[in-house]
Amino acid sequence: MSSSPNASASQLTFLRNIRTRSIQIGYLAALASLLFTPMLIPADTVGQRVIGVLGYILIAMGALGRMWCTVYIGGRKKQTLVTEGPYTLCRNPLYLFSTFIVFGVIGMLPSLVFAIIAVACFVLFHAFAIIGEERLLAANFGSDFTDYCERTPRFIPRIDAVRAAFKDEGFGDFSRRHVSRGLIDTLAFLLIPLLAELVVRLHASGKLPFGG
Questions:
Q1: At what angle do helices 176-190 and 46-73 cross, to 10 degrees?
Q2: Which label site among 39, 80, 122, 185 has the fewest CB atoms less than 10 Å from its CB?
């Protein structure tokens, strides 16, 4: 792990704020679409239950994975090039685990319109964020970041690095504030299935358009 020179902290914060606001707006639109579009798979069928369970597993994996990343990166992103733990698997594990959550929610809420909007928002906004953040990391950490890029894929994880990622203990100086916030986020993500179940039930009972 290398340490950090003259970081463009304000630029990184600006990019993160744009991404956060854009994602919030996009996902609110996706959620609103659930009120007016039918579910592709009827409620209380074997298919709906199987896909729902798989969706919940993906959400749980994504939420816990994001927490794992936060333990390593929380409060250190602007000062340190983190290459241990989940950052051994790929350069953007936080976004990788967010992908799990997005597809888990789509599995629990099988609406075509919702799926299209959610995936489009995720791909567009996270691609923008990844490119912007990597430019800043390259500017701040130079050859250290170049070496990291050469041995670590951007998004698709290295399977051969899984054992090393879990053995790593490079999180001794983690930020308690960021980890506490990450824990709250994790709990919030784990509550998503309850909302999903409510929406599916409302559709099944005919209380929403295209329900029943």
A1: 180
A2: 185
Q: How far, CA to CA in Å, does 41 sit from each of 33, 85, 180, 200, 205?
A: 16, 38, 37, 10, 14
Q: How far apart are CA 70 and CA 73, in angstroms?
A: 5
SS3 (DSSP) at 81: strand
As a residue count, the chain comes to 212
81 beta partners: 2
pLDDT confidence band for 153 (50 / 70 / 90): very high
For the chain, what are the domain ranges? 7-204
What's the whole-model pTM score? 0.76
